[in-house]
């Protein structure tokens, strides 16, 4: 399979990334960014004047059969182990499949890359996906999944955001939302009161369609997630024990990250009929505090 079928503007370069995997780098006056074709995985986005917005683990694997830890894993066609808890690999096969670059354009320093996933080539006939990522002052993500057969679709932009100190972080915008608490001992029926704060392992699927923002006083900035075609927002930090248990996550890295994810999962999975299509959109933007 030819992995790159698009002509590239001068701001986009093909490189050999870590583990010998093919990566694309973007370098414009507006931002620097990086995407691996493995999983269509965005591993960097750094708008001009900002420190990196996406967090990457120094312990991440870079191998064709393993997910990358950090950046933006594209999770689908199921989330975690799926609605019934019986699916593997975790978070679906999109993030461990090879994607093709089918389009690339630079409009005044905002670069849009189009990536295509051919399910048949990845061993999963009947499902295809197109993913348009816009790198500029903002980061825009648009994933369209098409299915030839009936499909209960779960999906996530499992975005890892870099923060200065998780214990000072708050997440705004989820007040009053019901959520499933997936942390050990958590219950499926909770309601958020006020902003989200972090004092231990946090793994929550909120029923939420609006926008939310991570307020990061240690870095003097906030990162806003706005989304469409998404009925859930996930907030995740593994804290100490879970970080220590994950081989591809450094034991001491958890204070520097939080996941704020645009999701469709669990009761909010998207039910598609044969021939159906669904688009999930998210925009991440940074503002000073
Ligand atoms: O280790 P993975 O498969 O990338 O998943 C990371 C985490 O992702 C979260 O979204 C899940 O709710 C957690 O249960 C999981 O631990």
Automatic annotation (TrEMBL):
Its EC number is 5.1.3.15. One of its GO terms (biological process) is carbohydrate metabolic process. InterPro entries: Aldose_1/G6P_1-epimerase, G6P_1-epimerase, Gal_mutarotase_sf_dom, GH-type_carb-bd. Signal peptide: none annotated. CDD domains: D-hex-6-P-epi_like (cd09020). It is an enzyme of class 5 (isomerase). Pfam families: Aldose_epim. Keywords: Isomerase. GO terms for molecular function: carbohydrate binding; glucose-6-phosphate 1-epimerase activity. Belongs to the glucose-6-phosphate 1-epimerase family. This is Putative glucose-6-phosphate 1-epimerase. The lineage of its organism: Bacteria, Bacillati, Actinomycetota, Actinomycetes, Propionibacteriales.
